[in-house]
Structures are given as C-alpha cells and as structure tokens.
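Usage

Read records sequentially. Each one opens with the input sequence:
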Amino acid sequence: MAGDTQQTSGEYIKHHLTNLTYGKHPDGTWGMAANAEEAADMGFWAFHVDSLAWSGGLGILFCLMFFMVARRASSGVPSGFTNFIETIVEFVDNTVRDTFHGKSALIAPLSLTIFCWVFLMNLMDLIPVDFIPTVVMDWGLGIHYHKIVPSTDPNITLAMSFSVFFLIIFYSIKVKGIGGFIGELTLHPFTPPNAVAAIFLVPINLILETVSLLAKPISLGMRLFGNMYAGEFVFILAAAMLGTYQFVGSWPWAVFHILVITLQAFIFMVLTIVYLSMASEDH
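and closes with the structure output:
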C-alpha cells in the first residue's frame, strides 16, 4: 500500500494497476496469479475476478434499489430517495424519446440499466485507492491484487459494448431483413446508378461499412475505458506521492471527477441509443 516502504513508486503504481486474475498456469493447474507476469502468461481465458465481482455486485445493487423503490411507489407525490429515482427514470425516458426514432419496448429499460450501471461502476473511482485493498489484506484472504473500478478494465467495457453491437445486428436484421442488412453493407456509401459500377464497388463498400460497423463497439468500449483509466491513474499517482495524505491531495480532482463519472455514463447511454436508432431505420 501507499505506506509500504518496501515498494518503490513504480512498483506501487504497477501493483494498483494489476487485476486479481484467475486462470490456467503453465503447469496445467488453475488458480490465482501471484503477480502481473503470471497473469499475463495465463492468456485469453484468464478471468479478472475483482472486475467481475464488483461489476456483478453493483448490477445487483442497482436492481435491488430500483426494486425497492418500485414496491414503494404510489400515486402520491414522491419524496426522498423515491423522488431521486423517479427523476433518473424521467431523465432517461426523455433522452430515449428525443433520440430513438424506432419502436421498441427494450430501449428505455436498456438505456436506464446502462446509465445507472456504468455510473455505479465509475463511482467506485472516488473511493481512496488504498482503502478496500488494505481492508481485504487485513481480512487475511491472501488477496494481493484488487481493483475496485470495473470500468477501468477493458474486458468489462468491451464486453458491454459488444453486447450493444449484437443488439445493433439484431435490430438491423429485424427491421431490414437479411437482404436489407447485406444490401446496407454492400451498396453504401457509394451507390452509382449504373448497375455494373455498383457491382464493381461492392467489395469497397463492404470493407468500408464493415470497418464502420466494427468501429462502433470498439470506440464505445475504449472511450469509457480510456477516460476512467486515466482518472484512476491520477488518483494512484496522488496516492503514491502523498501516502496517508492522499485524500486531501486528491480531493480537488475527485470533485472534478464527479462530472467525468456522470458524463461518461451519459455518453455511453446516448451512443447506445443512437446506434440502435440507426440500426432501426429502414431506408
């Protein structure tokens, strides 16, 4: 941790940027990685246990909060936490109405889930970087690596964005049919009136549209990861330099980071709505 005299600043930063990883060791056994090198050697099928646990736990927390509010909902004037939740629901609903031009009962609840879930994952960035890892170590669980911000893990952000990508494919085929979807990939953006020229341009259109299609989930996931990773890195640098005074030193950045946390959740939600709206348009 920050106060550990056995660690240099570089080792401290590397330690805090390493996930708790479970995977297959070179000898064929499965277990936790003891260091960053072992985690890298585990390859593609390794699991970031901390990211999965925190993202799953925060998703359950989101569901429980909204379930409790829904049970207490009444026709009267809401107050307190219920009023706060209803404000979020109304905000997301208005955003969907203004942005999504198709018809689907899935988009509004999906957008609400994305906004709240991403916000909660981002919100973990405001917890001092040494607090939970120190608590976990004091419990004697033998957990030497522990990252608590799931959105700083590209595996989590890209998993969410590729889930959106599959929905884009689904809505494109649902609205336009297989032929329409293939036609969209092969007859755009260049659509000459001459049939021979159109056939000649099919491979070029296919390459351009495929790249454009694949860029959506990659940019969606990497944007969230990049912004949150940079924010977390600033907190880790502050903790490495200030040690036990990290809370005081990082407070100004934390205040500004509240805006970043909310904005990134909003951007992820809005881009999801826009992409699904584009997929639902039939030309």
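Summary fields computed downstream for this record:
- The first helix runs from residue 9 to 16.
- DSSP finds ten helices and three strands in the chain.
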